[in-house]
Amino acid sequence: MKREGFSTGFGYVLMVFLVVALGIMIFLNFRANTEQRETLEAEAAAAAVTPTPEPTATPEPTPTPNRITETVTLVVAGDIVGQPGLSTEASYGDGEYDFFDELEGITPALSGADYAACTIVGTVSATGPYDEGYHMPNAIATALAGAGFQLVNAATDHILDRGLDGLTETVTTLRNEGLYTAGAYSSQASHGAYMTDVHGVKIAFLSYTCGTGGVSVADNSWCVDILTRDYMTDQTTVDYDRVDADIAAVREAGADIVVCFVYWWENTQLYTVARDNQTAVADRLLADGRLLVPLFAFRHVHDLFFLV
Fold first, then answer.
1. Could you count the other beta carbons within 10 Å of the beta carbon of residue 284?
2. Of 32, 116, 147, 155, whose CB is crowded by the most CB atoms within 10 A?
3. How far is CA 122 from CA 152, 169, 187, 262, in A?
4. N-term to C-term CA, the chain
């Protein structure tokens, strides 16, 4: 009997102990949950009264200077003068001509150019005679194209030596060889500056002659671009209004570079320094500050080109 009472009492004690332990665990867990909830509520309340910081302003990028990403090489040769001696040297008899030997010395320079231009003084056709005046056989056009030229400046005081027909034939012959022309035109419809794209750089070509060798173009003013208003007499009054308008027009058309050929006065031929009338025109064209490089590139300083 005693053993059974003891077992029953111990069971009650053990049960009470377990209940108390469970209660303590529940209490501790409840308190921990309460503290955690109070902490979260306090943090939420603090966040509600703390202003959101302004975002950091995006820094302005430091500007970098413009860089040239493409180099364009322009080669400009001097006068190809159509005097009889040139054709005589290129003659092979029986009316055959070959000018490649005469141009052989400059072809290496042309091979490295992105664009190459020259000036031809005189007229070109398939018929002679070629032993007088400034007149060349059409083989010169073939040689110029073969040497690497792309453009020929034809506005000189000898382009009308054979009249309008001679001018027209010259331009047509050059164009048939794939050469573009500046300053002289085969028709009124074709009159205007020539512009080309060289590796994404738009280059416009203008060309002017101070005179026409005493030939009037009053009825065909479109055939050649003339620098002076008094081209038939003193050739001293430069038509700056026309030149300025032409440059403005090609700029408006998108030209990045303007190449301007000027065929000067006869009194400057064979001089090795610029004359007063040359520098006056050059200074005037340089005045707007857009001219890149002026070059005196010729033995005959009556021909000058510059980049505007």
1. 13
2. 155
3. 12, 12, 18, 16
4. 130
Q: Which two tokens stand for residue 101?
A: 């030997």
Q: What pLDDT digit, counting tens, does each position of 109-144 carry? A: 898 899 999 999 999 998 888 888 899 999 999 999
Of 175, 165, 167, nearest to 144 (Cα)? 175
Q: What is the pTM of this model?
A: 0.72
- Phi, psi torsion values for 148, nearest 5 degrees: 120, 5
Enter the DSSP assignment of 122: S
Q: How far apart, in whole angstroms, are the C-alpha atoms of residue 172 and residue 184? A: 10
Residue 302 has which token pair? 């009556």
Q: Tokens 């990045």 — which residue?
A: 256
Q: Please, which residues have CB within 8 angstroms of residue 303's CB and are 6 or more apart in sequence?
A: 78, 79, 119, 156, 261, 262, 263, 264
150 Cβ contact partners less than 8 Å away, ≥ 6 residues apart: 115, 116, 117, 178, 179, 180, 196
